[in-house]
Design a protein that fits this description.
Layout lengths: L1 H15 L7 E2 L2 E3 L5 E4 L5 E2 L3 E7 L18 E10 L6 E7 L8 E2 L10 E7 L18 E13 L2 E13 L12 H4 L6 H7 L37 E6 L2 E6 L2 H6 L1
Parallel strand pairs: 4-11, 7-8, 11-13
Antiparallel strand pairs: 1-2, 2-3, 3-5, 5-9, 6-7, 6-10, 10-11, 12-13
This protein binds 2-acetamido-2-deoxy-beta-D-glucopyranose (7 copies).
One 2-acetamido-2-deoxy-beta-D-glucopyranose (NAG) binds next to loops.
Amino acid sequence: MMKLLRFSIHLFSLFTKGLSAQQIIDGQIFTPGIAIIDAPQPNTPLGGDFLQIALDVSSDGKLQLPPYPKDPRSAIWNITIFLSSYTTGKNLTISNGTASAGNASLGEIMLQEPASTVKHVNWVWPDCLVGNGAPTDGSSSRGLYNISIRQNFRLNGSDEYTIFDLPIQVTNYIPQESNRPSCDSLNNALLSPEALNASANSFTRIPGTSIQTTSTETGIGGTKPDASPEDGLGAGARVECRNIVCFIWIATVALMLTL
Ligand SMILES: *[C@@H]1O[C@H](CO)[C@@H](O)[C@H](O)[C@H]1NC(C)=O
Ligand SMILES: *[C@@H]1O[C@H](CO)[C@@H](O)[C@H](O)[C@H]1NC(C)=O
Ligand SMILES: *[C@@H]1O[C@H](CO)[C@@H](O)[C@H](O)[C@H]1NC(C)=O
Ligand SMILES: *[C@@H]1O[C@H](CO)[C@@H](O)[C@H](O)[C@H]1NC(C)=O
Ligand SMILES: *[C@@H]1O[C@H](CO)[C@@H](O)[C@H](O)[C@H]1NC(C)=O
Ligand SMILES: *[C@@H]1O[C@H](CO)[C@@H](O)[C@H](O)[C@H]1NC(C)=O
Ligand SMILES: *[C@@H]1O[C@H](CO)[C@@H](O)[C@H](O)[C@H]1NC(C)=O
């Protein structure tokens, strides 16, 4: 009951935030880092067999794919992803760089689909997320989560580690299947926001700025044609950095339907 209450309060707080469009351009979410999230959009209700995430790791063609040249000016060293929630208390490994049995947690994201600038993360929902609809009682692990994307990267010669939290709702139907890993096998301790703040760098990526690949040349591609912030998701999306951990606030009419 408390969890259900918190779920509703959290959703309500999404509506009451002052909102303006900022770092979502043509539906692409610019993280504090080099990766750009093509999907999912913030606060999407998700379910199905897999959690699917599409990440552009070339900054729309500005940065080449690995293997990088020796001593690159810019590079993504690695990306780790967790599905975490202070509401449910879960912090599940999507990828920590080392695949576990049956890809219950995935190997290094930067090394998959080597020829593709967009990495398609396909992660089997683990067992505790099976169900349908919003959580109805306090024992449910379903509900509000962040897809927490951590990047170790170098941009224009400076090494950074950043955390970006993309909120989603695990509220759509997730069928029971025999191949679902146990949440216990994927779960990690949840750290406090203060500890996370202390572990990350403060970094803001300005969409459209160029990236140096080697010390002498700038990016391999041209810049993306200008897009106005009103494009893409439209009004209601805003990237906010509370301390150093950045996340997205958004309100959409679709949210109302889930209440
Ligand atoms: C998602 O991340 C933000 C920022 O780190 C945090 O304030 C919020 O509580 C997190 N949401 C959940 C459901 O844990
Ligand atoms: C990611 O890259 C950083 C910087 O090179 C390194 O310190 C860290 O061990 C790497 N982590 C993983 C999971 O590969
Ligand atoms: C795990 O994922 C990798 C990369 O996508 C793939 O090559 C491999 O076949 C998968 N292994 C299993 C057991 O599904
Ligand atoms: C990566 O995650 C898996 C699944 O949670 C875990 O078994 C493994 O110990 C983790 N590896 C590292 C290096 O953290
Ligand atoms: C989740 O666990 C991972 C691995 O231990 C950790 O790096 C990450 O900071 C944790 N996330 C939260 C929100 O505590
Ligand atoms: C967050 O970390 C920065 C240093 O990385 C520090 O200056 C700041 O005081 C921290 N904020 C909080 C609330 O812990
Ligand atoms: C990277 O360097 C280029 C070329 O010097 C510059 O135009 C660009 O603003 C820099 N980008 C960032 C994010 O600092």
